[in-house]
Structure formats: C-alpha cells, structure tokens
Design brief:
Layout (H helix, E strand, L loop, with lengths): L26 H10 L9 H23 L26 H18 L2 E6 L5 H11 L1 H5 L7 H10 L27 H9 L5 E8 L6 H6 L13 E8 L15 H10 L2 E7 L5 H25 L16 E7 L9 E2 L2 E2 L18 H12 L15 H4 L42 E3 L2 H14 L4 E5 L17 E2 L11 E2 L4 E3 L3 H13 L3 E7 L7 H14 L11 E6 L16 H6 L7 E4 L4 H13 L4 E5 L5 E3 L3 H10 L1 E3 L13 E6 L1 H17 L5 E6 L17 H8 L5 E5 L3 H7 L9 E4 L10 H7 L4 H10 L9 H21 L4 H4 L30
Parallel strand pairs: 1-2, 2-3, 3-5, 4-5, 9-12, 9-13, 10-11, 13-14, 14-16, 15-16, 19-20, 19-21, 21-22
Antiparallel strand pairs: 6-7, 8-17, 18-20
Helix pairs in contact: 2-3, 2-4, 2-6, 3-4, 3-10, 7-14, 13-17, 17-18, 19-23, 23-24
C-alpha cells in the first residue's frame, strides 16, 4: 500500500490545543505575543502569517456583519439598534472554520499556481463564500451593485437573508460555488463528479460533521476508488469537526482520533488531523497539512501519469491512499465565549445567531459591538472600505481565484458534444406493430458512438444494470471503471473505463451532477422504482437551474438526462416493491421551464428523444421506456415527425377519417400505448362504425397550456388533436392526477377520463399488471363505450364481452401462469375479421364469476 506521508498531529509543530481561553477582545494581543515567542514555527513566515490571520479576521467580520447589520458597516460610529436588522437570520457556527480553510487554500493556490474548486458541505456556508468572494473581488465582478468598498459592504449586509436578497447557504448567486449548500449529504459526491476528466483540478471539499452523518455522505467516501490519477483530478476532503449540529453533538466529533484514522485509512485515505484553537499555532499546523496534502496528491498523479507504481497498467486504485484533513476547531470560533452566563463558543449555542437579543437587550448589543471590534476592522479596510493592499496581495491571480475559476461556472467550459447522426440508429419497422424489439438496444448503440466521439467529455452513470437495461453496446466503446484488482472472469472492467457503475443511486446521480456542473455531458439510467431514492437531489439540482436563469453570468449547462427503465408495468417478476412511478410525480413539481418528461413509445422515438435531450441545456430530462420486447410502431421518418410535435394522432390505429371521432383514445408510455392501440382494435372489431381517434403523447408537457408550460400546445392545436367536447379516455404510464393537472384549463377538461398506475401490483403476468390497475385494453374499451351516448345501447354486447374477457383472464393466469393466448399473440392488423373469441371457461370454474369491473 502506497501512502504519501503519515498524519500530522497537533503537537508536530510544538503547540498544543490546551491553550487558555481568551476573550475576543484579547485575541489580537494573544496572537501577537505567540508570534513573538516563536510558538508559530512552521511553513509560514511571520509576515505571511500575520497577513493571513488578518485576512481571516476580515472574512469573519464580514460574516458577522451579514447576520446583524443593515447600516454602519465598518462601525465608524457607536453601534445602535438602528443599525441592526429587525430579523436576525443566518448561521455563524461554521463560518470561522470555513473562512480559515478558504484563506489557507488561497495561500496554496498563490504559491503552487494550482486550480482549486471550493465545495462547502456544511448546511449554511453562505456567509463564508459571500465574504471570501467579496474580499477577492469576484463577487463584485458578477454583482456590480455590490461594489468592493464600504457602500458594497453595506449592500452585501443588507442583501443577506432579507426579502429579495440572498440565502444563508451557498447558491447560484455565489460565484465561488457550484454546489447547493442547503442539501446536506451531497458535497463529496459532487466533488468527485467535478474532478472526473479534469486532470488539473483539485476539489477541496469541506464536509461538515453533521453532514457526515447522512447516508449519501457515508456512501460518498467510496468514490475515491473510482478516481483514476492518470486522467482525473483529485478531491481533498476536509472533514470539519466542530462538535455540534443544531443542538446535539455529532458522532465523529465525539470519536477519538485513533478510531477516525483507522476508519478513513480503511476507506482509502491518509488522514492528517489538525486540532485546537490556539493561534497562531493552528495556522501553522493547517498550512503544513495543506502542503503535505498537495505534495501527496501531485506525487500520486505524477507517478501514475509516468506509468509507475502504485497505479501502473492495471489501474489499481485500491493501491493508493489519498490525503485528507480532519480539522477539529470550535464551533463559532472567535465568537462570544459566553452569553448570559452560558458558554457559546465551542457549543451548539453558536450554531445560528449567538446574540439573538441585540434589538431588545443593551448588554447583547454591547457584546456584539465588542465582538465585531475585536477583529479590528479599522486595520483591515481602508478609508473607502476596501480591503487594505497588504491583504489584497494574498488574493490568488485573477484566473485562479476560487470565485473566478470556470469550474465553478461550468457553462464557461462547456463544449457541444460531437454527435453522430441519430438516423443511423433507426430500427426498420415495415408496419405498425410488425416488429417486436427491446427499445433501449438502439439507444445503447447511439450512446456507444457518442462515447467514442467524446472520450473526455461524456460518461454513462448507473447502477450495475447497464446490461440489464439493454445499453450494453456502450461496452464496445468503454469498459466499466475498475476499483480494485481485476479477475479474468470479469466482464468489461478496466482502469480506463468510462461507464461508472455502482449500486448507489446517490452516487450515480451525484457524480453526474458534479460532472455537468463543471462543464461536461452525461446520462444516468436506473430502474424506475428506485430513482425515487434521489428525489431530493434532483429537486435541488432543478432549483439550482431555476435560480441560474436569474444570473446572466451563469452560463448554460448540459441537461441532466435520466433514463428510467425496468418500469412498473414490466416488473412482474420482482413484484410490488419494484412497481412505482413516483419519480416523475416529484420532477413535475418543479418549474416547467427546467423539467421535461418524455414517454417514447418505441425504439425510433427513444433515440430521437435522447438526441434532443443530449443537445439541450439547463433542463432535467426524464425519459421512461421499458426494456422488455415490445411492439415497434413508427418508422424513423414517422417517429421524427411525431417527436417534433410532442403528440399526434396515429392514423393507422384510428377510424375517424376526416371527421369528428366518437371517442379519443390517448396514451403516454409504451405499455399504455399498446393497450390503447389494442383497445382501438377491439372497438373497431366489435362495434362496427365506431369512430375512434388514437393520440399518442411522447412529450408530456405539450398537454399543458402555454401559460402553464412554455412548450405546451396552444388551445387551437390542442383542440384540433383532442377536439373540444369529445370524451377522451387516457391511458397513462404513471399517476392519473398528472394528466388531470396537465389538461387543467382546457376546454371541457372533465371529459378526460384517465387510467394509470394506481399502486396495485404483485408478482404476476405483464397483462395482469394493467388489469390490476384498470388500464387494460378491455377497461379502456368499456370506458369508451360508456362515454359515447349514441353507442351505449347498441354496444352492450361488446361491453359484456370485454367484461367476460376480464373475468376469464383472472381465472386463466392462475391456472396456466401466463397470459391468455389472445393477449400473448395479439398484434395490430387492419383485418378485424380475425377472431379473438376465446373458448369458454370450464363450467363451474371457481373464478369464473369473481371479477368486478368497479
């Protein structure tokens, strides 16, 4: 096992964490005395140490000001309640520690000329990133109204946690962030996604100790095994242990150092522990730790890129331990030691607003003023309110500032994919329903060639189901990424693999997010039922995209493309646990300008849709299609026209000619499409003269009005397709309320009668799934006749026959364990004289009369 260097203890530089507690007012004096006594022996010169400490004080001052002040930003007059915000919102507890890290990363960047992306994992790191971006000038560059002077400082303070302002966590408004700071648990997985295929980048990921307790974060540590030092950048995790969450202690803060070292060594890291609150000793120890980590990272990468151990030809990522830092510092560091006789610094009471009564309690107001003046703002900012020149000199070169590097604004790096002509992946369809195929097969070939043309700009992410989801053609272009020793019996495993497989939806989706947010392209495929594991992640990403639209300097990103397969209707062998359609329900709660939902009915439509999705920007695209053999309906040319419209009438399955139909059979989804087309066939066969129109919807959003969704059909086009007053029987892949919400506001919306997934399922046959959820062809046909008044009496025999078929189905599958022959062998044909009359049920069969069509 190769390691870069051993851990650094708090005693390595001749200092101790057991220093006497000092008040904020005495902190500067104590710092000076310690420096003069030589306690700060380490990599930082006296001058550099002094300036870095004061830069840290400036960042801390700005964080306090964001929480409290609306006026008097530099305390050039005594602090009054008139200067305080009426509502005190924000989080102080994590700020000083994160500021400390940011200042030290600036020093490393300036000395080593390295590219570092700062990822703030703790829940409310917004004050830190706002303050540090303002100090380095990048905030004012993208927000010109927040000028780098006293007026801009006041504006920054007034914008924080106020109406129309900025939140207390990182967001798209923050130029040094590509990570939504409110979503605990995802910082580390985003960091790894960011460095894949970015060989020069280091993602410094600050993991909060409360965040470290979440399941996604726990799973994210294994990402290091998927890192290839020959082609990828590096992640430097900085586990920030400050002791407490909102009110309770954190698990790892209460874990002894030896156990933490063992834990993280086992996970593939070499931890350096930096702990204490003594100054300037903490500065020197952390600087030394950063230097060791950077040297370790570069050594691992240089050796791998020269073809030397530890990686070598086999790509053994398990042969490497990457550096990380465990930083133990007090919660609310440099803040009030006590308030009202209760300890604050180093306790949960420092989490949010340590002095919450400043507007009512003069003692609190005086304590706040003393706290802020302890940072000596008059020695940090000049007459105009700008950071003084000796401190500005610590800012890294313009292009390397963490608020200005393009990785934090990934659209600046984005280049369009080199796309093959998707028509080359057409499936030959000589006639509707005359070919049965697995729709994702051709998509796999399409993705294979995209990977070949874009070897450093596109990846496929997913659980261990690429083969299962019929995308295995991608392995002709790239293997799965190896994360340990490979064996002769392994299938498509190598160190150079670009297919990222791991049985964690959190990692798959999170890696993809980080990859996209830093300017690349990709897709994620998964089983439909388990996509819901990452509902909150997709929600946060969509919200990020929504907010990015408010800032012109945030350049467009490649869309997040999700393929849902192994869906609810064909998980008959896995059973009820795998039968769920709720992922789309959550996605459609997001704003219509950032989400798109597609239900391609066959292979040619699927490739067409995915070509569009991979070319799109700033969307979450969800594409749902089954992987089982199914009918292929449209030629490539017909699919092209159909997908460009989003929804259209299928003339081959309709009988309304140029006139008004009696009923519209609509469908969205591959299984609902089969049932709707089969229902049309049954109606035309058993009810001669019925006028049926079949409408297939591939882009769900077109159902909505343009007022509700930007690409919705105008009312004239909608009524040309669905008419104004004809009943519509809609077979939908998912929850029925989705369709009702989509057509809300359309003419006579009550005429839409929707059948969909109603959460009925079990281990059963494919057709029984649609029967259980009342969406079978027989249910649709009965519904159609029920809502056409002129046919109710004349079509009673047909309705009785359809009901009898449902009863017969119920009995047949329990006796034969498969669907009836007329279901298994059915195909579309224009010859309605073919008999589908089954033999009668055996006399006295116990299930012959048990079916209810309620």
């Amino acid at each position: 096992m190769y390691t870069f260097n051993a851990r650094l203890s708090s005693a390595d530089l001749g200092s101790t964490s057991d220093t006497p507690e000092v008040s904020p007012e005495a902190s500067e004096q104590a710092f000076r005395q310690a420096s003069q006594q030589g306690i700060a022996a380490g990599p930082l010169s006296d001058d550099l140490l002094d300036r870095m400490h004061r830069y840290w004080q400036a960042a801390n001052y700005l964080c306090v000001g964001q929480i409290y002040l609306k006026d008097n930003p530099l305390l050039r007059e005594p602090l009054l309640t008139a200067h305080i915000k009426p509502r005190l919102l924000g989080h102080w507890g994590t700020s000083a520690g994160q500021n400390f890290i940011y200042v030290h990363l600036n020093r490393l960047i300036s000395e080593q000329r390295c590219e570092i992306l700062y990822i703030s994992g703790p829940g409310h790191g917004g004050p830190t990133l706002n303050a540090c971006a303002w100090l380095e000038g990048s905030y004012s560059e993208v927000h010109p109204d927040i000028t780098p002077d006293v007026h801009g400082m006041r504006a920054l303070f007034r914008s924080f946690s106020t109406p129309g302002g900025i939140p207390s966590h990182c967001g798209p408004h923050t130029p040094n962030s590509m990570h939504e700071g409110g979503e605990l648990g995802y910082s580390l997985v985003h960091a790894f996604g960011a460095v894949f295929d970015h060989p020069g980048l280091i993602a410094a990921c600050v993991v909060g100790d409360g965040e470290a307790e979440t399941c996604p974060l726990e799973g994210s540590w294994k990402s290091v095994r998927f890192l290839d030092p020959r082609r990828d950048g590096a992640v430097l995790p900085i586990l920030h242990l400050n002791g407490y969450k909102i009110s309770g202690p954190t698990l790892e803060a209460r874990t002894e150092n030896a156990a933490l070292v063992d834990l993280y060594r086992g996970r593939g890291y070499e931890p350096i522990i930096v702990e204490g609150d003594d100054l300037p000793g903490m500065h020197q120890r952390f600087a030394a730790a950063l230097d060791r980590c950077h040297a370790g990272i570069r050594d691992i990468q240089d050796r791998a890129r020269r073809g030397e151990a530890p990686v070598g030809d086999a790509g053994r990522t398990d042969a490497v331990r990457w550096p990380m830092i465990i930083l133990r510092s007090p919660k609310g560091w440099t803040g009030p030691k006590e308030v009202d006789g209760l300890p604050v610094e180093g306790t949960f009471r420092a989490h949010q607003v340590p002095l919450a009564g400043v507007n009512e309690n003069p003692a609190h107001l005086a304590q706040l003023e003393a706290w802020m003046r302890s940072y000596a703002p008059e020695a940090l900012f000049d007459r105009d309110g700008a950071l003084i020149e000796p401190l500005r000199a610590l800012t890294p070169p313009a292009k390397l500032r963490m608020g200005a590097i393009p990785y934090a604004n990934g659209g600046r790096l984005l280049t369009a994919l080199e796309m093959p002509e998707f028509g080359d992946y057409a499936l030959e369809v000589p006639g509707p329903g005359r070919v049965i195929a697995e729709a994702p097969r051709k998509l796999g070939e399409f993705l294979r060639d995209i990977m070949r043309r874009n070897p450093r700009n596109f990846r496929v992410f997913g659980p261990d189901e690429t083969n299962s989801n019929r995308l295995n053609a991608v392995f002709e272009a790239s293997d799965r990424t190896a994360f340990g020793p490979t064996l002769p019996i392994d299938d498509h495993i190598s160190a150079g693999g670009r297919v990222m497989e791991v049985l964690s939806e959190h990692l798959c989706e999170g890696w993809l997010e980080g990859y996209l947010l830093t300017g690349r392209h990709g897709m994620w495929s998964t089983y439909e039922a388990f996509a819901q594991v990452v509902d909150s992640m997709v929600t946060q990403h969509a919200k990020w995209l929504q907010q990015c639209r408010e800032f012109a300097w945030r350049r467009p990103l490649a869309s997040l493309n999700v393929l849902l397969t192994s869906h609810a209707w064909r998980n008959d062998h896995n059973g009820f646990s795998h039968q769920s359609t709720g992922f789309v329900d959550n996605v459609l709660q997001r704003r219509a300008d950032v989400v798109r939902v597609y239900y391609p009915p066959d292979s040619n439509c699927l490739v067409n849709v995915f070509d569009h999705c991979l070319r799109s920007r700033n969307y979450v695209n969800v594409v749902t299609v089954g992987k089982q053999p199914d009918f292929q309906w449209l030629t490539f040319e017909a699919a092209l026209e159909h997908c460009s419209r989003g929804a259209s009438a299928w003339d081959f399955a309709s009988s309304d000619g140029d006139g008004e139909p009696d009923v519209v059979l609509a469908c969205a989804g591959d299984v609902p499409t089969t049932e709707a087309v089969a229902a049309s066939w049954l109606l035309q066969k058993h009810v001669p003269g019925i006028r049926v129109r079949v409408v297939n919807v591939v882009d769900l959003g077109v159902l909505a009005s343009p007022e509700a969704r930007p690409h919705g059909m105008d009312h004239q086009s909608f009524e040309a397709l669905f008419t104004q007053d004809v009943p519509v029987i809609f077979a939908y892949h998912g929850s029925t309320w989705i369709i009702h919400s989509m057509v809300h506001g359309r003419a006579n919306e009550a005429r839409f009668h929707v059948r969909g997934f109603a959460d009925y399922g079990t281990t059963t046959t494919p057709f029984d799934m649609v029967v259980l959820n009342r969406m079978s062809r027989y249910h649709l046909a009965i519904d159609a006749l029920r809502h056409v008044p002129r046919l109710r009496s004349s079509a009673s025999d047909a309705s009785d026959f359809f009901s009898a078929q449902l009863r017969r189905h119920d009995a047949y599958i329990r006796e034969h364990f498969e669907d009836m022959p007329e279901i298994r062998n059915w195909r579309w044909t224009d010859d309605f004289s073919e008999s589908d009359t089954p033999p009668p049920l055996a006399k006295g069969h116990p299930r012959a009369q048990t079916f209810s069509d309620a």
